[in-house]
């Protein structure tokens, strides 16, 4: 099987609208969580979110194109453009036919749906925008990525809640590794900070009202985020032949289903996904130096993930550097795995562990090294990135330091 590497990364996030700005913010422990500005929060109990700031789709798209894109699709296309430009690859006519595009999203065009529900039910509108359906459909982002960049190979969207992007990246890895595609554009996009979505999450009672504090004793829940990250994947052989820079090798992916509870996480399901990623990558537990944790800052998730790491790594768990970058960029749902994979790839490249900010003292059942409050420089031979979704659908990605 062919070895697969990441040669391009594009990011739109609450802490930066380019890859470099995103990484600089994470290393600096900068929070993108703040009072929500996209709509009136007077009727919300939770009034904070991790919004993408200073982003106007009109700056990136012609008027006719802009009218077709929900905010989540705008994020995906802009991030994909950055990833391709960053890779330095030219998508020729021949390569376009051999390039896959696989993207994850949890809910698709939620802004479009929320806006139109308000128009119908609150304002009594009789007609909606003619492109309402093309804007809100869950494959809209990946479809626009293919059209914008001329991708004509196998392309589709994956929806598995918080694991959507990680499932998409894992699928793209298999396409390139097997030779079914020469290159892949993959990642995730989400924009679901809307009034209706926030009310739904409030009803679950898992939202923090003030800050995201993963693994801390005083954690109060997750903070909803948004954004996109997109990767260019290609074989190590092709990347070396064209002299491309390589962020990291995408060495393996592991996937599992809890087959248990729709919202409660499972130690067994998470552990099986972790072990599957290590096995596919040919990595021993002792080879892993860093874990980018799912780390939502909910009571159940943080304890379950910690137990899963103990179960998967044994005595080596105490040697792991763990961090949750959600403490800075929030939980971007279907895009979370992609944004966190970008953080992991950059961490492996630079030998820097981004911190878990807002950390006070370890919570009960949270007894690992969570890289509290400040980034840490250390060599990273290999790392994993965890995504454990509602519905019990899990995906873990394993990355290895690039050669040379």
Short summary of the structure?
The protein is an alpha/beta fold and 404 residues long. The protein has helices at residues 19-27, 63-66, 71-87, 93-97, 110-122, 132-136, 140-149, 164-178, 195-204, 236-241, 267-281, 299-313, 326-329, 336-350; strands spanning 4-12, 34-35, 48-49, 99-104, 155-158, 183-190, 227-235, 248-257, 290-292, 321-323, 352-353, 376-377, 382-389, 393-400.
Ranges with pLDDT <50 over ≥5 residues? none
Mean pLDDT rating: 97
If classified by CATH, what would the architecture of the largest domain be? Answer: 3-Layer(aba) Sandwich
CATH superfamily of the largest domain: Thiolase/Chalcone synthase
- Largest pleated sheet: 10 strands, mixed
Please indicate the percent range of residues in DSSP E strands (runs of 2 or more). Answer: 15-25%
Written description of the protein model:
The chain has 404 residues and is α/β, with parallel strands linked by helices. The chain has two domains: 4-241, Peroxisomal Thiolase, Chain A, domain 1, CATH 3.40.47.10; 252-400, Peroxisomal Thiolase, Chain A, domain 1 (3-Layer(aba) Sandwich), CATH 3.40.47.10. It contains 14 helices and 14 strands. It has helices at residues 19-27, 63-66, 71-87, 93-97, 110-122, 132-136, 140-149, 164-178, 195-204, 236-241, 267-281, 299-313, 326-329, 336-350, and strands at residues 4-12, 34-35, 48-49, 99-104, 155-158, 183-190, 227-235, 248-257, 290-292, 321-323, 352-353, 376-377, 382-389, 393-400. Helix 8 packs across helix 14 and helix 11 (267-281) crosses helix 12 (299-313). The longest helix has 17 residues, at 71-87. The two termini are 21 Å apart.
């Amino acid at each position: 099987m062919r070895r697969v590497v990441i040669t391009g990364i594009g990011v739109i996030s609450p802490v930066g609208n380019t890859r470099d700005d995103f990484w600089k913010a994470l290393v600096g422990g900068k929070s993108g969580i703040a009072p929500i500005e996209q709509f009136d929060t007077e009727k919300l109990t939770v009034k904070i979110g991790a919004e993408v700031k200073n982003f106007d789709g009109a700056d990136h798209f012609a008027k006719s194109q802009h009218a077709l894109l929900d905010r989540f699709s705008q994020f995906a296309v802009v991030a994909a453009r950055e990833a391709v430009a960053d890779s330095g690859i030219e998508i020729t006519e021949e390569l376009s036919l051999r390039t896959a595009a696989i993207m994850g999203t949890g809910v698709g065009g939620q802004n479009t749906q929320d806006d139109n529900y308000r128009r119908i039910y609150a304002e009594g509108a009789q007609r909606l925008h003619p492109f309402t359906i093309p804007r809100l459909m869950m494959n809209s982002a990946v479809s626009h990525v293919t059209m914008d960049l001329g991708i004509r190979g196998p392309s589709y969207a994956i929806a598995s809640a918080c694991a959507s992007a990680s499932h998409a990246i894992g699928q793209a890895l298999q396409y390139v590794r097997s030779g079914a595609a020469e290159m892949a554009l993959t990642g995730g996009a989400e924009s679901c900070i809307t009034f209706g979505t926030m009310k739904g999450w409030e009803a679950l009672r898992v939202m923090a009202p003030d800050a995201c504090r993963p693994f801390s004793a005083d954690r109060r829940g997750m903070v909803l985020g948004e954004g996109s990250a997109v990767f260019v994947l290609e074989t190590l052989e092709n990347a070396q032949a064209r002299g491309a820079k390589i962020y990291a090798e995408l060495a393996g992916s592991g996937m599992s289903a809890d087959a248990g509870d729709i919202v409660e996480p499972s130690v067994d399901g998470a552990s099986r996904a972790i072990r599957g990623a290590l096995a596919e990558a040919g990595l021993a537990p002792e080879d892993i130096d860093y874990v980018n944790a799912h780390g939502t800052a909910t009571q159940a998730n943080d304890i379950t993930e910690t137990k899963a790491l103990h179960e998967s790594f044994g005595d080596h768990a105490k040697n792991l550097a763990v961090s949750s970058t959600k403490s800075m960029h929030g939980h971007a749902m279907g895009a979370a795995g992609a944004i966190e994979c970008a953080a992991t790839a950059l961490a492996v490249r630079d030998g820097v562990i981004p911190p878990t900010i807002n950390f006070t003292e370890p919570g009960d059942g949270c007894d690992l090294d969570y890289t509290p409050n400040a980034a840490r420089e250390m060599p990273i031979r290999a790392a994993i990135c965890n995504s454990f979704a509602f519905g019990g659908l899990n995906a873990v990605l394993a990355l290895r330091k690039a050669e040379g």
